[in-house]
Amino acid sequence: MLTIDGAWGEGGGQILRSSLALAMVRQVPFRIVNIRAKRKRPGLMRQHLAAVSAAAVVSGAEVKGAEVGSQELTFRPGPLRPGQYTFSVGSAGSATLVLQAVLPALMVTQGAWALTLEGGTHNPLAPPFDALAKAFLPLLARMGCAVQTVLERPGFYPAGGGRFTVRLKGGAKLSSLLLLERGETRRREVSALVAGLPKAIAQRELASAARKLKWDAVCFRIEAIQAAHGPGNVVLAEVGSEHLTEIFTGFGEKGRSAEAVAERMADEVLEYLAAQVPVGRHLADQLLLPMALAAGGAFRTLTPTEHTRTQVEVLRLFGCGEVRLVEESATCWRVEVERAAW
Amino acid sequence: MARKKTVVISLLGTTLDAGSGTKRWDRWRPTVSLCQHEDLLVHRVELLHGRRFNSLAELIQKDIAQVSPETEVKTWPIEFNNPWDLEEVYGGLLDFARRYPFQPDKEEYLVHITTGTHIAQICMFLLTETRYFPGRLIQTSPPKRGDKPGGPGSYTVIDLDLSKYDSIASRFNREQREGLSFLKSGIDTQNPAFNQLIERIEQVAIGSSDPILLTGPTGSGKSRLAKKLHELKKSRRQVEGDFVEVNCATIRGDGAMSALFGHVRGAFTGALEARPGLLRKAHCGILFLDEIGELALDEQAMLLRAIEEKSFYPVGSDKEVRSDFQLIAGTNRPLLHEVAEGRFREDLLARINIWTFQLPGLKERPEDMAPNLAYELEQCSRAMNLHLTFSKEAREQYLSFATSADALWLGNFRDFNAAIRRMATLAKGGRIGVPEVNEEIERLRRSWSHGYTIAPGGNSLAVDTLLTRVLGPKRALELDAFDSVQLEEVLRVCGAAPSLSEAGRRLFNISRQQKKTANDADRLRKYLARFGLEWNKAHSA
Fold this sequence. Notes:
The complex is a heterodimer of chains A (342) and B (541).
Chain A: E1 2-5, H1 12-26, E2 30-33, H2 46-59, E3 62-64, E4 73-76, E5 84-88, H3 95-107, E6 111-119, H4 129-143, E7 147-153, E8 162-170, E9 177-179, E10 185-195, H5 199-213, E11 220-225, E12 232-241, E13 245-251, H6 258-275, H7 281-293, E14 297-301, H8 306-317, E15 323-329, E16 332-337
Parallel strand pairs in A: 1-2, 5-6, 9-14, 10-11
Antiparallel strand pairs in A: 2-4, 3-4, 6-8, 7-8, 10-12, 12-13, 14-16, 15-16
Helix pairs in contact in A: 1-2, 1-3, 1-8, 2-3, 4-7, 5-6, 7-8
Chain B: E1 5-11, H1 30-33, E2 44-49, H2 54-67, E3 72-77, H3 86-99, E4 107-112, H4 118-129, E5 135-141, E6 154-158, H5 166-183, H6 192-207, E7 212-215, H7 222-235, E8 243-247, H8 255-261, H9 278-281, E9 286-290, H10 297-309, E10 311-312, E11 321-322, E12 326-331, H11 335-340, H12 346-352, E13 355-358, H13 369-384, E14 389-390, H14 392-402, H15 413-426, E15 431-432, H16 434-449, H17 466-477, H18 481-496, H19 500-507, H20 520-529, H21 535-540
Parallel strand pairs in B: 1-2, 1-4, 2-3, 4-5, 7-12, 7-13, 8-9, 9-12, 14-15
Antiparallel strand pairs in B: 5-6, 10-11
């Protein structure tokens, strides 16, 4: 059986989610050991268990070691079972990460899927719903898999309580993706979302972002959310280019000033704009797996992160086509994904 | 095997868990925070609350469902008129614990002690410690500097089973080892049976204040062990009072009552001053009654009452006095036999026979000769202020004799210690050589072959005494010097006199003149009976 060292690389959770996705796609069992071995609180955490149990449900998997604190997990997937599912994850866990673990397998499996995901939709250290809906899913559609998603209400840390739905028809033949240029910039927007918090926070964020980005005033807007079940704040920048849309996020949290949150996000936007690459860091991590399942392809992005390299390693372990990271300049890397041999 | 489900029992914190509106999420709410930890999956919360707080409980229930979809929240009504009243709160929680269908084989319980009044927290603790709540405690605390702001903070699970904590357990073990070593005077004894015995004695002595009965041949170390037990218990603060030792054979007769239980001034002729008695001296301490079989029946009855009631009447007093002591009794006689003979009260034996330990004689512990030799040598060195050593051959020769079948060790450690003291005294410059050893072996052999032993300090009993002939060497050894001198003379007179009456006349020759009716024969018969002797035997010796 394929054994994966969970202590390797940076993201213990990411290794696990990618392994779950690939095991279901390839219908192979795997064992992961030393899960988050070097962490202060080692082993599986509840957000990881949420991903494991969602994957187990859609694939009828046989699972061993799925317990909080467990450092070893065996996952033996069965055939995928299309249908309607609801997955809930506690506030500390991101519902978008749960989706990440199951979505690749749904895409390649014939049938209609309807998922309801509950929990955090805008959590730090996870792609916010907006990045999913505006940046990632449109690219999947371009590869041949249309995924519809609707946000019913956002969920912020720590209260959670968000909900969104995802619908797709799996089993379509996926084409390759080529994203070497982003083309001309067509849309620039910064929105500050506040739920249950003073609007002044949003105003301060927008003012700080505007100072850094120097975009027109019309690009900045406040969105006051009534539907949320708890307080929360994020500031999102959207850069719509000819060939794709990228999303950058600043998460408001207790103890960090609105200005600091917005400035950090603005710095990321500026870095991206200056580099002239189409794909940002987080999107690069997310694209690798679907591209490997499809007919491969290539994109340009910023300097690969440790997460990206970890992802490349997991793909290799599951026998996907080779992924090459080619440095073209200090700020521009070309990522080439080979079509899998299977 | 399915893992046990985690169930938290928590009182609704009417202050800490309170809050409504969006702002409540800014506050740290302990009961909600319990269900927000990434590394703690709570399957169920049993939320205890008063009816007045129904709506708060419902809100908490809803919020937990949101932050932790895996958690089920059950609410239990519990009413306290005064949540600061220990009796009421404890009673209410105890009722809950009694009613609650605990399934410890399927679920593990965490008792949350962060919410509720301090009284409620104390009650939760007490109920967990006494296992009415068969689980562990969980304490939650708000985010500290460095923790994730707005996060659930931290939690600590506290298992009240101290044996599960390595450092505490090893400390207990170390203390026990130290205790054992202490009881053995630091002698590294090797005899497994003896070591096991000491271990058990330590356990009993530390764990209980019941009477302890030490049996074993004379010189097997009963008195030393009793003294050590007192020191050990004192060092562990289990006794405060003194160690009071008395050999019951020395307090026989009229003075015995008063010696043990004290008397008031003027209780009898000559009682010019009040006397507290040994039992009262042992208050809060340990009373060691050696040779308890020698105690007369009247004193036995008083003693039994004193043990059971922790109080007694001093001689001549109509006022009870209290004394709470732990009794350690020593005997080298089989007390059951004494009971059968009517010389020992059965009820007293039953009372002191809870923990009986039979100390083996030295001969049964051949492994311990060498460590005891080293120990005694060191003791002698200290006493004589001289560095005592054995030459290698001398040591080997002595040990080989000591563990041989020839060495009877009739007086056990008494013989053993005396032998070393003699060799040490005779050795030149503190170096014990083969000549001293050979001489001592000869001395010991001779003494055992004559059926007597050499008492500590070198005072030897006469070789072939009437005493040893009548009582046998073993019992003769168990007599105090006082008794043995007296009895020896009594036996001499008995041997020479033609009848019991004549012997009595000769022995009580002075005091009989003051009596109206002569009862010399009776007095002598009673005296002999104390040593288990009858006229015929005493006369024919």
